[in-house]
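Hi there, hope your week has been kind to you so far. No rush at all, and the record is pasted right below.
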Amino acid sequence: MLENFSQLIKRVKPKKSLSQIFLTDKKIAQRIVEALELTGEEEVLEIGVGNGILTEYLIKKAKFVYGIEIDKRLVDLLIEKFKDVPNLSLICQDVLKYDISTKKNLVIVGNIPFSISTPLIFWLLKYHKNFQKAILSFQKEFALRLLAKTKTKDYSPLTILTDNFFIKKSLFVIDRKYFLPSPKVSAMVMMFIPLKEPLYKIDYKNFFKFLRIIFSQRRKKIINILLNNFNKEKIEELKKFPFDWERRPEEISLKDFYFLYQNL
């Protein structure tokens, strides 16, 4: 490995257009990799290799590592740094365009540029059958929305949608000072474990559109939102069912949203 890699990587100015932030603390990187609980038999996909701080630990623990990095400047340096590592493939590509449909039981890890948080969640949904676990860091506020419970201000369409497909868990918070450049907010490391089968069989894109319509008027009662946006005759039929129509969106469970979605 190049002795002066750390000096070279410091010269690479993070691109604002890519929302690049690099983790700088090796103890935190090690903690993230340890949370994966790798046995040496797994194939790992690292999203956003960046300065290679996670990669250094992953190549020691995984059977094989696929490192995705969109920035060619970084990839060129990383290829040189890890040129003698046989269980690593570095790929210069946008992860959102990366196809893992042929993979099974992949393990995913990465410090995610905050700007791609929502698109990446949809990427995970698309490939939920192709990985066994993902540990990713997001902007703390975004992570809290994913983890929110009913009757809270953070409860959102993404909360409900991801509840249908994943077991989600907060692992720990990374203070903003451990990133370069330092973002305005801290990050939260989360674990996603895909359910063997989604709780409800839905088209996740259409279900999300439905939820966004509902939550665009989150302070209104559900009956008024539905009457303003959906077929009134169908709603009158639905009113025959035992359902609390006076609730607001943040008070409604995934199960009840699925009932509405299926019948409207």
